[in-house]
Amino acid sequence: DMFGAGTDTTYTALEWTLAEVFRHPEIMKKLQNEVTQVVGSKLNVTEDDIEKMPYLKAVMKESLRLHPPIPLLIPRESTQDTKVMGYHIAARTQVIINAWTIARDPTHWENPEEFNPERFLKNTAVDFRGLNFEFIPFGSGRRGCPGITFAIAVNELALAKLMLNFDFALPVGAKDWDMTEAVGSTVHKKNPLLVVATPRSF
User: Fold this and answer.
1) CA pair distance 157, 172, nearest whole angstrom
2) Which of 79, 136, 162, 193 is the most exposed place for a label (fewest CB within 10 A)?
């Protein structure tokens, strides 16, 4: 279960991040410049390098905001009668949190449908580790995702390596990036991400 859950959500998050970056060439160029500047003359990206890449981290956060891999999180069950915002929630009620809607709520996010990593550079205090309830792609509290550190490390490193080594473009004949979502508990792209990758020259 842990291997399946961790693999599915991790690659889904990376695929959505790449799709958003490819759709916004100015963001891709800025990301490539940051990665190239930090890595310098080395041939590869290390985990230590990632800590010096605030824009890459902002891109990852913004992608998770718009495309949480599990938009309805994992169902919970209330342990006792309680009231939430005036509503009575009986004990043993199954509760489902819609992280997708929360992360697009215009009362918390300016231009919530827009892919804008800079929002996380302006407000670096907002993070996905469960303390900011407007942004909970991994859940929150004791039942939050146990693989959060692994997932972020893998995705950030993969994204940095791809940005360092390749330029990306639409396939011949394609006019725009397909961002259609498939229906499911984990939200995948409906159609595979098709891209032409060209090795970068330095």
Assistant:
1) 29
2) 79
